[in-house]
Automatic annotation (TrEMBL):
<keyword id="KW-0812">Transmembrane</keyword>
<keyword id="KW-0472">Membrane</keyword>
<dbReference type="Pfam" id="PF06146">
    <property type="entry name" value="PsiE"/>
</dbReference>
<feature type="region of interest" description="Disordered">
    <location>
        <begin position="160"/>
        <end position="180"/>
    </location>
</feature>
<feature type="transmembrane region" description="Helical">
    <location>
        <begin position="89"/>
        <end position="107"/>
    </location>
</feature>
<feature type="transmembrane region" description="Helical">
    <location>
        <begin position="55"/>
        <end position="77"/>
    </location>
</feature>
<feature type="transmembrane region" description="Helical">
    <location>
        <begin position="21"/>
        <end position="43"/>
    </location>
</feature>
<protein>
    <recommendedName>
        <fullName>Phosphate-starvation-inducible E</fullName>
    </recommendedName>
</protein>
<keyword id="KW-1133">Transmembrane helix</keyword>
<dbReference type="GO" id="GO:0005886">
    <property type="term" value="C:plasma membrane"/>
</dbReference>
<dbReference type="InterPro" id="IPR020948">
    <property type="entry name" value="P_starv_induced_PsiE-like"/>
</dbReference>
<keyword id="KW-1003">Cell membrane</keyword>
<feature type="transmembrane region" description="Helical">
    <location>
        <begin position="127"/>
        <end position="148"/>
    </location>
</feature>
Amino acid sequence: MYDRVTESGKRLFVWMERLDRWGYIAIGFSLLAVSILLFFHGWAEFLDALKRTDAFLFTSLTLVNSLLLIVILLELFRTIVRFLETDILRVEPYLVVGIIACIRRMLTASAELGDLRHVPDEFFDKYLKDMVMNAGLVIVLIGGVYLLRMRPVPSDQYDAVPAAGPRQEAGLKPASTFRA
């Protein structure tokens, strides 16, 4: 098919690739900016709530919920950066995001429920089903991560090999191998 593509078609494909890259870059910066704003907002809300109330447990769980959302966003940001560096889209970071999202949901539901003695039976049954579903999903996702690590996909072999850059050409170690 590509041997029948005209020269103008090839130029169009090049521009589409560039726009695709810029789209990923824009989304990456957006995720990073939202993460930073959520971090400061979460801490400001936490400190403000501590001044107003004595509900340390509830405000702490709200902060933990916000921080877990930030971890999810930063993991997606890291996945985009890695994709832009290698042109390889890996599955494992999405599984990790799913695990964090399930745990976040479990913590949020537990915090919202509060005291179990005053909860109607029907609501409690829904809560238990939600917890079991999320716990089962965490186990399945952890199993997926385990399987990926046991039998890496062929593209994983390229993740450990850094591209030759100016540091290696000068006989220096790559920056990623330096230990603090």
